[in-house]
């Protein structure tokens, strides 16, 4: 099956699964395809620090923030946090939340263990592959939706 989004710039750059203590448990990089453990660890620590700081000052855990180059969408569960880094291409936040919910559901239902960090490398590889599949399908859906919208707009 040919990939529909081949040649198109990826909207989602990286998906991080982070422990409640700030350790990177799993990450899937859609842009560089390289393992930069230092950058992943640093990013995970920063995300955790932001979550803790916001909770400490009693404003609640952020679900979204943006930087000069990226937008970061987050969801925190009792056992882990999910951070999805996307480029600045405008995407409806509800669509981003649906993507995060789908990833969270995958991890929550696939894992019966208390500590996600105790899961072995092979299982993490399977989860990583499923996350890639979810994100690629989501990107295809978004692309088709945007194309349909452009066609509808051009008819009016």
TrEMBL record:
* Domain of life where this protein originates: Archaea
This one is known as Uncharacterized protein
Q: Which organism is it from?
A: Candidatus Heimdallarchaeum endolithica
């Amino acid at each position: 099956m040919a990939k529909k989004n081949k040649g198109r710039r990826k909207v989602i750059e990286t998906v991080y699964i982070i422990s409640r203590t700030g350790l990177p448990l799993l990450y899937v990089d859609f842009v560089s395809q390289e393992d930069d453990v230092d950058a992943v660890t640093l990013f995970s620590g920063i995300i955790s620090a932001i979550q803790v700081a916001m909770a400490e000052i009693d404003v609640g855990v952020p679900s979204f923030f943006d930087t000069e180059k990226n937008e970061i969408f987050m969801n925190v569960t009792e056992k882990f946090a999910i951070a999805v880094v996307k480029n600045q291409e405008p995407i409806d936040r509800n669509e981003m939340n649906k993507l995060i919910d789908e990833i969270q559901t995958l991890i929550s239902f696939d894992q019966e263990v208390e500590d996600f960090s105790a899961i072995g490398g092979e299982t993490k590889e399977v989860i990583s592959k499923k996350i890639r599949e979810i994100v690629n399908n989501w990107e295809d859906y978004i692309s088709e939706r945007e194309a349909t919208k452009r066609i509808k707009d051009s008819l009016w």
